[in-house]
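Module 6 notes. Inverse folding takes a fixed backbone as the condition and produces residue identities as the prediction. Think of it as a translation problem where the source language is geometry and the target language is the twenty amino acids. Below is one complete input and output pair. Work through it position by position during the lab.
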């Protein structure tokens, strides 16, 4: 806590190239890659510095940068970054313990085709029945025991918050 990684500037929205006088251009990242970008910064607790002029932000970029539930993970009172608990074959899982006792989990697919990514509770350091909420869609997914599986788009992410049914976390 009190020390944060600096993964550099976010390249979302219209970006300005360094050492050029050219007008800002749209990010070369796909929408899924931009969700991945913001999810990583939120799970890692990195400073969020945008590299796009605010007056040129479109609706997608504004929504990307102002999702309250994703920002809650970024701004969690613990001030501790997430940790990679799985990194193999183009799949990465990052878990971040939150101050209210819940965990934020990012399921990242670096592959060029969609993947079903499964995680079991032992990998995440949790136990018991868990409520799972999709943070980007701001939608409850359901209650799960022992594991969770999500279909993740190419270069995309599914970012969820898991809270134990019996620990009082909502």
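Target side of the pair, the amino acids:
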């Amino acid at each position: 806590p009190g020390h944060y990684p600096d993964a550099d500037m976010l390249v979302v929205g219209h970006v300005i190239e360094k050492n050029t006088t050219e007008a800002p251009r749209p990010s070369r990242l796909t929408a899924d890659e931009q969700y991945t970008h913001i999810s990583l910064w939120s799970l890692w607790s990195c400073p969020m510095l945008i590299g796009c002029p605010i007056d040129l932000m479109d609706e997608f970029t504004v929504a990307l940068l102002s999702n309250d539930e994703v920002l809650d993970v970024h701004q969690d009172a613990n001030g501790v970054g997430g940790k990679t608990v799985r990194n193999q074959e183009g799949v990465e899982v990052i878990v971040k313990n939150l101050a209210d006792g819940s965990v934020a989990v990012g399921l990242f697919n670096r592959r060029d085709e969609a993947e079903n990514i499964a995680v079991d509770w032992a990998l995440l350091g949790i136990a018991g029945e868990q409520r799972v909420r999709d943070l980007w869609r701001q939608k409850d997914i359901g209650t799960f025991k022992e594991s969770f599986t999500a279909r993740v788009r190419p270069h995309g992410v599914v970012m969820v918050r898991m809270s134990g049914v019996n620990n009082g976390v909502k």
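Reference fact for the lab report: The first helix runs from residue 31 to 44.
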